[in-house]
Input
Amino acid sequence: MTALLQHPGYDEEKLRRVAEQLPCREVQAGLLLSLMGEPQQYSYPSIFIYGHRASGKSHVLHVLLKELELHHATVSCVECVSVALLFEQVLLSFFGCDAASLLPRSPSLSDFVRIYRQQPVTMETSSHQTVVLNPVVEDNVTVILLSEIVWDKFRPNTGCFEPLLLHFPDYSKGELQQILSQDRHPSYSAEFYSSYINILLGVFYSVCRDLRELRHLAALNFSKFCEPLEEGKVKETDTHKLWRNIEPHLKKAMQTVYLREVSSLQWEQMQLMEEKEAGALRGLSAHTHVELPFYSKFLLIAAYLASYNPARTDKRFFLKHHGKIRKTNFLKKNEKTSNHLLGPKPFPLDRLLAIFYSVVDSRVAPTASIFSQISSLVTLQLLTQVSHDDQLDAPKYKCAVSLDFICAISRTVNFDIVKYLYDFL
Amino acid sequence: MDITWSSVKSIIKKWKVYDPHKRTISTVEHGGGSILVWGCVSAAGPGSFVKVEGNTNAEKYHQILEDNLIQSARELRLGRRFIFQQDNDPKHTAKDAQKWFKDNKVNVLDWPSPRQKVNTFYRQCVLQDELNRKILDSLLDFTRKCSSARQHSDWASQMRANEIPTAALVLGVNVPDHDITFQSLSELLHQSVTPHVASVEAKECGALKHLMKRVLERLMDTVVDDDEEEETEHTSTQLHKSVNCSLSALCDWYITKTKRSSPAEHERQQQPPVVIIFKDLEAFNPRVLRDFILICSRYIERLPLMFIFGIATSPSTIQRMLPHSVSSLLCIELFQSLSCTQHLATVIDQLILTPQFPFKLNAKVMQVLLSIFLYHDFSVRNFIKGLQLALLEHFHSQPLSVLCCKKKEALLNVMQLSHRDLERIRQLPSFKRYVEKQESQEQVNLITDDSHLKETCRKMIKGLHKYHKNYYPILKCLHTLTSALPRYPLGKQIRELHLTCLEKNVWENEDYQSAMKLLKMLAKDDLIALLQRCGEILKPVKSKKMKSTAFQLEELLTKFKQLDSNEEDSITSPIKNLQKKTDLFQLQKTLLEMNETRRSKKLSPFEILRNEALEFIDSLVKSHLSPPESQTLHEVCYYSSSATVRRHLNATPRTSIQAALSSPYYYLQNENLKTEDGTVSNAAPDICIAYKLHLECGRLINLYDWLELISTNLHLFLSLSFSARFIRSVSELEFLGFIKSTKQKTDHVARLTWGGC
Output
């Protein structure tokens, strides 16, 4: 395998170390190396690497640059909210804080280039998920861009120097098996751990190919896997029994700890506990009940009705003497059963309040706190304001809760909401 | 009331209201910051203000009084006829100062209200802490566990992804209360876990940059360099040039911080975590939060970060806001706080259902406060604010509230009442009722003789205190008995029972009678358990009445227990005798008798005892749970103006606009505007007249007709200035939302309100 990573200009020993650290990514590493060429050669100015999460992009680059002792700076573009930060971080990691402090306030690109030129040494840049290109520095610099998204999304309208595109494919099941088996537990044999990884991948491979996540899950559940072994019930080679023990446990993990319904700390504690106690632990999404003040409940109900009923049907639902409205006329075909599929519609504040007053049994004074409740419902994200915040006159809202939620709410105030919904007539 | 004193740059914390009718001098005292000021104010104007050097003690206070008080009085030409008033600071009440007042013949008046108020507020803070103690403790445990888990270096923790420990703190929708919780949380964290705590709110973190900046500022306690904000530039540029708005700067800072402190405590290698509290998770921009978590996860190996999310609705919000790729970076644990109704129950129990505080609310005010809580905001803090408002209003508006204090002080204060105050007592409706019941000689005495009235007042105050002392334990007993019944005839919560008791005689209530009927059907074990609980409630109460009732209850309970042993020899069944009789007539007769006995079935000893117990309870209720209106002088302690409270706490903007427009006198208080109801005087502002006349129009209003209508009403000729005034009032009405321009007819406006035409 090491034969793949042969390149003139670099030390054999170093290349071997690199190859050791990069299992299943030899092809990509070799390609990168050949793109960069020998240390004294000029390299291609920009390379764009893309691939899914945890497919080894940063790892490969990091290992290459570090082991081959290439001068580099790594910058995260999420972190650099302004250009100044980006420049500063690049200068800082190249030349230390002296150069970085030379940057003026709100620097431009030419400032950056000027300071860059003043410095004696120049080497290669690798930038993490960056879109900012700086090929202006006339020097031996390679900008390597890492991203989870394809290049087409980043291409600026004005056109730019096209980078070389390099794709990192997902790891296959076999590759995952090979990589994960490497970090075995020191007190168990490699075969034993590899069989564990095999079982783990059998359960999780269909939902998750993220190496980082899989490694995390493997570490969390390994103690449970070893349990029968520790108790002396089975031998290491008895894979079937081990599988029978761990399989339901892993399935449960997929529904809880993988989705972060239960924290990994709690999961570890649960493994220590007895089976029956463990069932008591409820995940995050099990707590859906929300306690609301009385009028807030009715405001939310009114908002839901306003969002899902066509405005012309309000008369039929909320007026006491609405006169005769013919059913055939009332139920238009295209509107029927479609409102819940289409999602909530925006409604003005006046309509919300009109429905609210007719829905609430008792007489309610239009006090300031009714209005403040509307805005607090907005901050709780049970309602969303459709129009802009600045619009004081006739703001529009949408209801952002589900049918189940509103049914639960209306049950607590003895209000049969289904009777008032146009879709369910 | 906070008043900044610009020249000395200190904030004066207390400011006492002085009564312009009395010629009193009050003190203003306590400087915030470094300078202490003593000053006095009277109806005639402010007296001297002096700076006080160093700490004040009783001696110094004496000296200040000596130097300044008499001097000020002389300057203000008050002579010796003033009343001095101060709060009950220990140095004020020291014997030295007391003696000085006596020697110099200065009358001193105590003012109970500020202290009471502070008292309640203080208690509230303590309460909040206690309520949240449990959840805060578990949170602290969590933080400690997380920070210690980081230090392990076994295989599993090496392999595990580095997650950011996160506590999801579900607090309920009562957002105003959260502040105190977070405050005490961050204080506790400061004390016991880590010095690095930063809390951020959504409204100050619109973009990632701002969030980052706030976090850094709060952790590092410095001004962070930022490109945009010009104000901070002067101070920050020189000092913190290198401090940039990024987490790497924070990392460096953290490393230097821990390095500096580590040699001192070498054994403890543990690094204190950096806690970031997101006060209102729902309001955060999900994008900002996502990016921030992504960035933080890159630094987690160097910086032991920890998050606390304050959640108002439900924990599933986290999953709604953060995609799996981000939430997989967190290790989320859930903490649920008390529900707000439980919270309220504790507050009511501690603040209202106790004889400790002489200040009380009557039924209507209580109702208003509770309905605001239940219907509108669920906020305990606002409830307590309402209580404080009622307190303030009571002491402000009711002169007889001097008597609303602890029993001893109240008795003293009675003796110091002036003739005018006594007249006020005579005007009280409850006192009038009392007088009517007395004999004629006594009536005359009460109305004419001041000293006799004072004596009776003392008795009444004592009675009132005794009433309160007995009322609450009995209320709690009744609640324990009735809350166990099916369908809660007298309410599930004790506050509901309290309200019915405040309103009228509870024993005349239908629900009470049905509750008693249900109690009469209780099984033995249940009844005994309930009575035992009642006994536990009554035991700690220190009043003679309650002691004796507790004793009687004990006796009843022992009787119940004795029943167990006597149970065997129960009544012999009459059916046994039946077989002996063969005669048809006799048989008929016995059967009839049996029917009779079945109807008026003989009571078993248990049933007799049960009835006895319930009658005992009933008598207790009748003697102690009468509404406060039946007590004489209840006006002293009970605040009754529910309208004021409602107006202050639950404003109705629409109604007040209506009131202002239809009767401007209500707000302007100008004699010219005073009119018979329904009409508006010509002197009223234009907008009022325009409003009044627009009510008489139809749905569409012709502007010219409207103008003419107004001009004829005001007997004014149409002129340019008049039409300008008219246009102004029309646009004002449009701004208030009564009319709007319409496209149907060009010179018309449409009415937006109904009625009137």
About this structure: Chain A touches chain B through 59 residues (CB under 8 Å).
